[in-house]
DNA sequence: CGCTTCTTTCAGAAAATTGTGAAGATGAGG
DNA sequence: CCTCATCTTCACAATTTTCTGAAAGAAGCG
């Protein structure tokens, strides 16, 4: 089935498997340090470093030495976070997991959901403690900061798209 | 010793302890979900919700029901992340931990160290996989994105300072 | 100097998280 | 309608993380 010499061109394929693995593990380690779970981090890094930006479950399992269950869990997490998308190649039940550059930048920056929940907690705090109290004012200012950031991020992403086009050409 | 009726005016003090605790726990929960450790998150939220934006170790321990050791560990982490600063009130060995709004916004956004490490991992990846390969190009684009964001964040914080002054008055 | 008060460090118990094998589900193709 | 390939769910074992009590370390104050 899977041609170990790399006819697929995905994953480590025929390439310098050593270099791929070095990158995957070191980048994943950074993601872990930033709070991401280990397995999703490794899967994500592997996809980033894959030739086509997409790999099947089997390829991921083989390259990272993890069980199908592990791949499944990692991928579920990643797609909930909108960091990867899944595609079915027609005619097979094999699923491919793909990282769209654009998509994952968005996911990273548009912590929209996060900002919203933080905002809610802060709003309730202001209400509960009283707008007039020192603590209430502090929370209100923090809330204002998050709302500000939320607005700015959208604009920043727009600038990024322009910037990116200039460099890489859409 | 510590006047349990709240003469200090810090922490929950004479205020609606119920409301304070509700905010602390719910905001801390959000921070935890975003990847922060539980105890630092609770300590930080408690400081945010305190009257003076500062509390002593004993006050934190009492309000959050955690041991001095727990406070110590949490505070060490928070000050490493530049989210709180420590002050000695002269004449006592009591230490006060304070959250400066400005300071912690900076800490939150200037993920400088993080971005730098991610950048390094990506740069090595590009070198290892080859700039000409599809994977190399993908990593290079990701790297460019981080460098872009890094630059933007500084500008954003500057705009925030202006915006904030307008609303809250320096 | 030594007493007292507060903080930090450390080893270990308790709890949470992680990754696996095995069994179950899902759907293409005969 | 059955089979085969694939993915997912679940219960559990192993690891890791978290928090504590106890003891050691600092620093004011007499």
UniProtKB/TrEMBL annotation, chains A, B:
It comes from the Bacteria. InterPro entries: HTH-GbsR_regulator, HTH_MarR-typ, WH-like_DNA-bd_sf, WH_DNA-bd_sf. Residues 35-95 form the HTH marR-type domain. The keyword Transcription regulation applies. GO terms for molecular function: DNA binding; DNA-binding transcription factor activity. Pfam families: MarR_2 (PF12802). Keywords: DNA-binding, Transcription, Transcription regulation. This is MarR family transcriptional regulator. It comes from Streptomyces humidus.
């Amino acid at each position: 089935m899977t041609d170990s010499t790399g006819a697929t061109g995905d994953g480590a394929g025929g390439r310098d498997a050593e270099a791929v693995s070095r990158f995957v593990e070191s980048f994943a380690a950074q993601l872990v340090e930033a709070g991401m779970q280990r397995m999703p981090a490794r899967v994500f890094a592997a996809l980033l470093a894959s030739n086509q930006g997409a790999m099947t479950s089997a390829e991921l399992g083989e390259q990272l030495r993890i069980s199908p269950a592990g791949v499944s869990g990692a991928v579920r997490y990643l797609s909930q976070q909108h960091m990867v998308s899944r595609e079915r190649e027609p005619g097979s039940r094999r699923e491919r997991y793909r990282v769209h550059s654009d998509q994952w930048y968005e996911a990273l920056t548009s912590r929209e959901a996060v900002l919203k929940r933080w905002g809610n907690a802060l709003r309730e705090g202001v209400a509960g403690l009283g707008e007039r109290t020192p603590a209430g004012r502090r929370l209100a200012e923090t809330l204002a900061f998050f709302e500000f950031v939320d607005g700015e991020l959208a604009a920043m992403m727009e600038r990024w798209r322009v910037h990116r086009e200039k460099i890489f050409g859409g």
